[in-house]
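From: lab user (bench 3)
To: helpdesk
Subject: output format question, protein + guanosine-5'-monophosphate

Hello, I'm new to running complex predictions and I'm not sure whether the block I got back is the full result or only part of it. Here's what I submitted:
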Amino acid sequence: MEKGAELYAGKAKSVYLSDDPGRLFLVFRDDTSAFDGEKVAQLARKGMVNNRFNAFIMQKLEEAGIPTHFERLISDNESLVKRLQMITVECVVRNITAGSICRRLGVEEGIDLDPPTFEFFLKNDALHDPMVNEYHIRAFGWATDQEVERMKELTFAVNGVLKDLFAKAGLLLVDYKLEFGRHGGEIVLGDEFTPDGCRLWDAETRKKLDKDRFRQGLGGVVEAYEEVAARLGIDLGTAAT
Ligand code: 5GP
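Helpdesk reply: Thanks, we reran it on our side. This is the complete output you should expect:
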């Protein structure tokens, strides 16, 4: 499979065409950003770690019956994925309060949410990813009602699988963001699942082991991602070519 022209460069990943029109290369870069691109840095090994982390999680989700775009690892920082028609909303589930919900609702960090909450955000950096609801999604035609229901169902299904997986590694899955796309009439999980897009705390100490280390200037960002990977038994060795 040959890598073709660059299709899109995000803040931490780039997307390239392949010689198969139905497949794309995802390239995980060492770049990291926060606050809609206002804070940026290069963190050595992050691309490799996130590529491996994402592959591991996507495979676990597939095994649990959740359709994902992931096909296979290509190299240390590249993966092959199915080409989706992306839906421009982000789906966020929270098991514990942290981040924007604390700012928006004036609640403390660390409150257990049982049942968990679900929120939609519009993917738009210029507007700082505003929260939207199902009426906005319907009115602006971003997704059909059926697609909205399926995204919610799959996002909660991911919670069931990953909360357990992380709990076995002594980690709390605080919250996470998913993005979906359309593929052959089906809603399929796209984008990535890495510590860049979720919050993970040590279950005992509640030490932050995710991108909040970068957002909050706590240091040891990639080291924390590597610790999570090690606890999950993810092999961070050289990827197959
Ligand atoms: P919050 O709404 O608290 O900022 O984010 C909730 C969860 O979704 C966090 O785990 C956060 O990392 C993730 N998230 C929300 N928006 C984005 C985004 O634009 N990019 C990434 N990588 N993660 C996001």
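A quick orientation on your result: The chain has six helices and 13 strands. Let us know if anything else is unclear.
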